[in-house]
Every structure is written in C-alpha cells, then in structure tokens.
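Re: Re: token formats

Sure, here are both.
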Amino acid sequence: MVTFSKKTTVSLKSRFGNDPEFAKWLAGEEGIEYIKDSLGVDLVRDMADVAQSDRPGLDIVFKIDNFMEKAVVECQYGRTDQIHLSKLLSDALIHQAKYAIWIAEEIHPEHKNSIDWLNKNTNDKVNLYVFKALIEKIGDSKESFSLIPICAPDEIAKMGMSGSKEQTELEIAQLNFWQGFSNAIDKDRSLPFRSRKARPQQWYSIPVGSAHCYITIRLLAADKKVRYELWIPDNKEIFDQLYLYKNEVENVVGKPLVWDRKEAGVKASSISYDPLENFDIFDKEKRDVYILVLLAELKNHFYKIEEFIRNMNV
C-alpha cells in the first residue's frame, strides 16, 4: 500500500523565537537571497539600520542596485495589522525608499486591498510589495522557507504616471530590452550568474563576488552606446588596488579600459568600456542581435574581471 507524508506548516515564532530574530535572519546572507529572488533586484544590507529594537517600526533597510536607491522591509509574525502598515509607509517616506516590502504569515484582505490601491495610484518612485512568509515540512524532512507574492505593482501602468510620453516610451523600451536580456541569460547555461528581474531603467546589474562592487550594464540611449562598468559605489581602496594591476586587469579582460576614480569628493569610482556603439534602443528588429553581442562580450571579456577580483579577495 502506498502512503504519503502530510505537509505541515511551522510557525515563524517556533522557528525564530522573538520578532527581531526573524528580521536579523532576513537581513543575513540566507534571508537576503530569498528576498532578492522574490523581488527580482540585487540587495546589499545597510548594516546601520538592521533590526534596531530601539527604533520602533524599522526592521531592515537595504541598498539596491547602484546604491542610490533603498528598500525598506517590515516583517511580522501572524496576521498583518494597521500598526505595521503605518510603519511600512512611514519608513518608506523617511528613507525615500524605491521599494517597500511587507512580510507576514497571514495577509488581511483589507491590507491587500490597501496596498493594491496604493500601487495603482502612485507613480514608479515607490513600489509596494506584500509577501506571505511560509515554513513547511513533509514528515521528518528539513523545513523549507518561501515568500509567496500577494501584492506587487503593475510597472507598465506606473510608467504612464511617471512623466512625459517620451519618458514613458523610453522606459517601455528599456523594460523590453532587459526582459529579452534576462531571457537570453536564462537560456545560456554556461553563464556563471543568474538573470535578474527586468526593470524599466537604464542599468542592469550583475554580481561579481564582492559586496563592495558589481558590474553594471548601462543603456546610453542618447549617446547610442552600451557601457559595461565595474561600479564601486563607496570604496576607493578597491579601485586603487585594481589600478596597481591595471595592465594585468586589462590583459585578463582582453580590452583597454577607462579608469575613472571620480575625485573631488565623489565616493563612487568605475572601470568601464563600451562594447556596443550605434545602438538604437527603439530598434526592435535589432534587439536580439544587440543582446547576443552584449552577452558574448560580457562572457568572453568584461565578466573576466570577476576572476581578478576573486583572486584579490576584495
């Protein structure tokens, strides 16, 4: 006779204990990966603002992508309530966050309706998400954690509220390009990195094994160029270390690079080159060709800088 084990749900409190422990886990390496996969953007923990128990209402603050944007996360046990909704919105306002994320075990229908309404009636400067946190196990198996999406913004609709017709058309073209780019990454099993969720923006970021820098691909529509950058938001030391080995780095990449330390009080610095010129983001017929060229250039040239960074342990 065939028998099956029953799937059971485990409460967050029985697994993590007090609320702050769940927030600390979400802000750690394992928790970040779950949020990144669910949200579709790269996150870096802002250590100064993680789970501060003496600051009610602020659970986690993340930096995003190019470190110029932020995400706030409000997490709670049990069912969503009005207090946590107020905290989420006030934290998003205080930190000027692009993403506001609410994580709970059970979502009250009224709160789902409230978030859906806000997403429909606000522009793309703020995006609100609600996820149901779920821990399950089957029999004596290891517990599994998942974030189930309950609310998310309609980004296409938000683009129409963000500005001029020309701006909206550019954002739609950017979104379509990055969707094609992400699909191409998913199909190429030889690439050592995963795709990310496409966004209506100029850049697309790729991790390089260091929390202090990452590769950014920029669509410079006005200049008709695409630029690969190793973007270092706030660490001149890494730039200076790499610059000491400038010739070796360029030999590994196989291309001459532009080294821009960005002096005069600017925290960021970059190393870049332009793999594609005469680029027209609105040319749908050439889009697939552009994507293939960019992936080949990335895989065969610029991503090799990751090997150098890894060996230097920066």
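Second one below.
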Amino acid sequence: IKHDFYNILHTYNGYFELGDLEACMRYHKSLVEITTRAGDLLDLSRRAVEHPALVSLLLNKHEQAERLKVSMDISLECPLSPLPIEDIDICRIIACLLDNAIEAAAETEQKRVTFTIAHEEEMQNKIITITNSSSKPIELSEVFTLGFSSKLGHQGTGLINVKKIIDRYPHCGLKIRNTDSEVVVSIEFSSF
C-alpha cells in the first residue's frame, strides 16, 4: 500500500511537471473511480459473515457487470440476515434478476444497475430493490408468460422461475415497474 501510494503521488507530480492539467484531471477522475469501487467492494466483502452466499453472489455479479462495462452500485442499508427464505432460493432469485438487469443495462447508453437492501422500521419489512437502465419500457403484463423475453434468443423462463420460488414463501412479494429509461424490481419480505 505504501509503494502504491507513493507511485500515485509521483504520477501526479509528473503531470504537474509537464504542465498537463487536462491529463492530470483524467488521471484523477480514474483514480477516484477505482478507489471508490475498491472501497465499496471491500465493505461488501466485510459483510460476508452476515450472509456468505449472498455476498459471494453480489461480488460475482459486480464482476460480470464490469466485464460488460455496466456500473453496478450495491447499497446494504441493513443487516443481510435474517431473511425468511432459504439461502439457495434467495440466491437463485437474485442471480436471475441481476443477470436480467445487467444484460438489459449493457444495451443502454447509461449502463447502470443498482442493488439495495433496506429495512422499513414501521412495517418490519426488508426490501431488496434492483434497478437497471433500460432503452425501452417492457410489457409488464407479459413478463410472467412462458416464452416471453425482451432478449433475442432467450426462452423466457427466468422470471417464471423467480415467481414460482417467491410464491412458496407467504411473507414474500415481487413487484416490477418500469419507465422509458429504467426497470425496478422489488422483493419485499414482510412481518418476519
């Protein structure tokens, strides 16, 4: 870390000596993005003790998003556990929803996905929200129809499987809404 820090400072100094303020600003912007991302992922890794399977999945999906040049923000506003659902089921749900979100976002100009877990104190609910940039609204009345997919070459079974899993849990609900520029999927765990 010490060597890395010195190298970063010397690079700044090189730009200043050359008088290339424009290149220095690009370097600074890149450095801020990298350190912010690394810090966020480190914070996420530290939360692995709360729910190792879910954290591992989120780190994997973050890496997948980066490969597709999609910016993925993860916000954990409450403890990850307890969730009133089996680990395998929450991971299957989140994996499918994030795959859909990342693939859809990769096709947009904004290339953005957010994943949030929050807790509503008043209602004793935990809500997982996945939002992605979208190039067009999806037909919500068809998303749970076998064979429906907004992506070419896909079978359209992912959201049907997600719904089947969620329907097995009485305190779990799924909502999807969208606009011209984004899709928001919410999973709500109530009264647990």
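The mean pLDDT is 83. The first strand starts at residue 71 and ends at 76.
- S.
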